Amino acid sequence: MGSTLEQILQHNREFVSEKHYEPYKVGKFPEKKLVILTCMDTRLLELLPQAMGLRNGDAKIIKNAGAIVSHPFGSVMRSILLAIYELKAEEVCIVGHHECGMAGLAAGPLLEKVKARGIEEKCLNIVENSGVDLKGWLTGFHSVEESVTQSVQLVTQHPLMPNDVTVHGLVIHPATGKLDIVVKDGQINPQFA
């Protein structure tokens, strides 16, 4: 049967030769002028765009573990800013989800798994000695609503964020697709304040 990569490449050869790509041809600018940061959870791959009424080409979608903007000058924030300045996005949605693996994630058990996979203590020390708070970096959040709110605040307060871009925070249910507003136009929903 082969590796997953071999299966992907075989499928890709057929996909290209049979021109199955044609329905997906769109421009590089998001039609709805929207950039979304969401979680990499597999349940959201097709559910999130469907629940939001999005088609291919409607939005720029950025994914990471937990839909978290963890640093004002990290790759996620850079991607959001590029979507705004280079790709004409005018609105940002940060979409977390219930039952997220980052909720309650503790660094200790994760670091034990790292060690069990053969990463030596000296490698962990190299990371910590480079100025990274490894335990803090590998710790999740307690509340998805709180995490979404913090990420929205980091985006809206960024010194390079233009004032005319609206930023929203939502939480999606990974089974039903139901969306709850946590932050709308920068204003925190009183239910989650």
DSSP helix count?
A: 7
Main sheet attributes: strand count, strand direction, barrel closure: 6 strands, mixed
First-residue to last-residue Cα separation: 52 Å
The tally of beta strands, per DSSP, is 6
Under the CATH scheme, which class of the domain at 27-105 and 140-192? Answer: Alpha Beta
Strand-residue proportion: 15-25%
**Large-scale geometry:** globular
Q: Assign the CATH topology of the domain at 27-105 and 140-192.
A: Beta-carbonic Anhydrase, Chain A
Major beta sheet, strand line-up: 2-1-3-4-5-6
The percentage helix is 25-40%
The named CATH superfamily of the domain at 27-105 and 140-192: Carbonic anhydrase
pLDDT < 50 runs, ≥5 residues: none
Oligomer class? single chain
Rg over CA atoms:
19 Å
CATH architectural designation of the domain at 27-105 and 140-192: 3-Layer(aba) Sandwich
Structure commentary:
The chain has seven helices and six strands. By secondary structure, it is of the alpha/beta class. It has a domain at 27-105 and 140-192: Carbonic anhydrase (Beta-carbonic Anhydrase, Chain A, 3-Layer(aba) Sandwich). Strands 2-1-3-4-5-6 form a six-stranded mixed sheet, with helices on both faces. The mean pLDDT is 95.
Please outline the helices and strands.
Blueprint: H1 4-17, E1 34-39, H2 44-51, E2 59-64, H3 75-85, E3 91-97, H4 107-116, H5 121-129, H6 134-137, H7 144-156, E4 166-172, E5 179-184, E6 187-188
